[in-house]
Request: fold
Amino acid sequence: MCGIVGQLDLSFDPHTRRIGRAQPSITHAMADAIRHRGPDGDGFYADSKGALSMGMRRLSIIDVGGSDQPLYNEDRSIALVFNGEIYNYKELRADLIRRGHRFATEGDGETLIHLYEQYGVALFEELRGMYAFALWDAARGWLLLAVDHIGMKPLYLHESDGMLRFASEVKALHAADVPRDMNAAALDTYLTFGYLIGHDTLFAGVRRLPPGHFLLAADGQTTIQEYWRFGAARANLAGMDDAAIITRTRDLLTESVDLHLRSDVPLGLFLSGGVDSAAMLALMARSPQASQPIQTFTVGYAMRTPDNELEAARRIAAHIGATHHERIIDANDWWRGFEQYIYHHDEPNANPSAVSLLLLAEMTAQQVKVVLTGLGGDELFGGYGHHRHLPTALRRARTWGRALRPLDGLFRAAEPLYPALKRYPYIGALPTYLPRWRLPLLPHDALLRRALSFDGLVMSDALRRRLYSDKLRAAWRNANHKERAFGAIIERSEAANDDDFIQALVINTWLTGNALLNADKVTMAHSLEARVPFFDPALLAFAAATPPQLRMRANKYILRAAVRPYLPAWALERPKQPFGTPILAWFGGALAGRIQNILRDPRAFVREWIDGRALDALLNAHFSGRAPQVEVVFRLVTLELWARRFLV
Reply:
């Protein structure tokens, strides 16, 4: 686990005497910017002609005393820098040795080089892991950049003036003098979703290499190709009844956890009160790979909240016999973590629970170097409301949506009232339900986009009309970014039925654009490796093939049935809870003064894009309690602090 950086001079001509522009000193500066990702060492490679320079920061997990990078093949014609873990490296290594390959290390990263020699760019079919890597084939003059199938390890790209630069974090690109300009075309997308969907970022010219894709740079050109997408690879379930599907799910989960426990350093588990991480704990406890007792880590709050998971986590840890650790945070602690989060995430991302996770990672890193997480159970096994509500909305839209579409005007007229309604008993629930009831009246893409962004519940067309300055309104309408980016995601999520389509759509929006990026950024901020067993490719292919009528029988029915032999009924039957924070109370109390000082500042960055009087009116209504809009306020203050840290 580490961070990687590099630069390639695409305009370099090997037939001239000119030295390329890939300066090693710049690569060193890029690596220094992400030292937190790999405090155990660094390594660099530079082509003798200046065409390529790449480097890495290392967090030593496997083959701690060896496997220093860059890694090479036998004749050193191939060089690799690598971030991540290849969990099936022992099996791959044994097969490659039988085929005549010679290894110089005992680590997992070197398998990538020999797989490339053996299979070329088809190597990805062999991998079970999380990774972002850069592989230089000097004989061909090729640079291969790749990220794992689901996007657990990010890789950012900037291509300009014949130079390609790449890095695990955007701040490393800034160390190479990549301009710090805002991508105004995507600002409405951020305000709508609270994060960026697709491959764009809010930095102009900086994009992410999409999950399941590789970039090949050759002959001065770059091409990006897809090698994996969720749902394209499906396990064969022919002849399997419900019981067999549940048994196979249990076997795949067990195998994945065993693989993810391969480590030469201590590891633990992020434990919430839900069934996903409880399943991880139960499977770890049964694995011969795990050291006992298992170390578990939970975050909670100094004030009581409906989703405070401390008690449930304590109970399951005690039942399994884990050594349990807790991090209790208050408003001031959370704000300190929030400011760290702004820096470490690079992109503005309005996810308050990720701040809590960063503070948990800070404590966890003092005990272990690797932590498993239960992230992914909801996405694979139907744990979100979207998995149930959206297929129904699509079917209703096809049946009678067009006929009733004229009624949509009533819902649009009600949108401006939603914030004020929230403070009233009984009718205060209407802003939660009215946007959902409106969905079948909308065209297909708009239905899905509004549902996935909670449009109406958070942002709304009425709010955009009031808040957006002329400058932002023009950028939004000219670019049409949100609609184009979401349209591409819809295309990538196509499936044979509505349930499978929504499963893929949630993965390709929320998971890859938000949850997985957060998991990487907040753990690596404290040099902690986070592993996600639910995203093993074999398990993903099987989950994609499970019949919706079984998967959606109840919330995460297949997962709960699969781990039923290992967990008590009270752990299995606990209802789904969001992993939230008490920011609603904090934003109206302990943190209200700080937030108002930031957003009411006449020099605030957001006032260039948000109408000043409309913003003041929104803040007055929110902090007086007349019309609470905590999610909107959080997105704006996140944007402001991000701009102050990276742009201004």
Observations:
- The two ends are 32 Å apart (CA to CA).
- The chain has a mean pLDDT of 92.
